[in-house]
Amino acid sequence: MLAEGIRFRDRALIPIWEKVLAGKRLGAEDGLALLETFDLPALGRMADHAARRRNGDRVQFVVNRQINPTNLCVLSCVFCDFAAKPGDDHAYEQSLDEVLAQVSDDLSEVHIVGGLHPKWRFPRYLEIVSEIHRQFPRVQIKAWTAVEIDWFARMERTSIEDILIRLREAGLSALPGGGAEVFSDRVRKATFRTKIGRERWFEVHRTAHRLGILTNATLLYGHIETYAERVDHMLQLRDAQDDNGPDDAGFASFIPLALQPGNTGLASRQASVVEDLRTVACSRLMLDNFPHVKAYWVMLGEDSAAIALNFGASDLDGTIGEERIAHYAQAKSPVGVTRETLVRMISDAGKIPVERDALYNTVQVWEAA
Ligand code: V47
Known about the structure:
Blueprint: E1 2-3, E2 6-7, H1 14-21, H2 28-36, H3 40-55, E3 58-62, E4 64-67, H4 96-100, E5 109-112, H5 122-135, E6 140-143, H6 146-155, H7 160-170, E7 172-175, H8 185-191, H9 198-210, E8 214-221, H10 227-243, E9 251-258, H11 273-286, E10 292-293, H12 297-300, H13 302-308, E11 315-318, H14 325-328, H15 339-348, E12 352-356, E13 362-365
Parallel strand pairs: 3-11, 3-12, 4-5, 5-6, 6-7, 7-8, 8-9, 9-10
Antiparallel strand pairs: 1-2, 12-13
Helix pairs in contact: 2-10, 2-11, 3-11, 5-7, 6-7, 6-9
């Protein structure tokens, strides 16, 4: 059936499309229908419409470097093959010089996340930020997830606000969106029991927003979570974004992270491309107050990430360099890509490549790429 320009095979999508066209908010039932649909072409058209309404044909990317200074971690999250305990073969920690050697002036952003090291104290994490900022003042620093911020506050016996202010004074520009996993007590008990839950995660992000620090939000999917839990996760983020005041920085990007099964024992294989595209499209349609949904090519793989650009994604993350979280869990994506590769992926998808910085300021537009 043809409705307002889209040919639908799944009639359940028609009332959702009507809401989207009327600018009405989608509810939990709509989210479930989007995740359950077999009608991928119609879903893609709907999500692409929502993405174009916000961002036109522009798809952003950043020339960045991901740095993971240590994988030693006091936590034992079931989904994480990256984390190590002292004495493990794959345990490592980088000196400050080794961290600095990964930064260069041609980068717009460094993205830094790691483990909760049993011996490192906050000044060491702070020094990583301040030294990068001192030696490379033009490179913006997106560092430490809410899990790390909470850990610093507890180690220092101080508030989240105090930690964020000290990091900002040292040169921090933005916070990454990791550590959210799935905002479900059931999933938390089974897979990340000793890590902060949603209340503290939101407290960190709310505080950052109030201080003018832009943040992202992730969802880890493709393991034991249900579709209802994925949708509920999105709705909690949408509510939190609504609660931000006009002077608050807010969430810039939502990033669905596809579980890399590796040796986690949580899934026998990675979510299918169909599953990836449904999750990206559903989040674009549900999160009407998020500027961007990111197709994180490191975990999706380059091919699925490229298709996701026609399913609502308007950001590809970046050139990355040597990423370890996904690759320790046997991700098959390459170790870093060039700016030219990202420009080609975006223009091949019929979109306009826009190079951005960590704060989503435009660096360069490839109108004729
Ligand atoms: O919170 C851990 C996830 C996250 C696995 O803000 C895994 O731009 C898949 O924060 N398979 C950290 N995921 C990564 C992160 C991030 C990534 C990309 C962009 C941004 C951003 C932030 O990595 C953790 C956890 O959810 N993770 N193990 C795994 N086996």
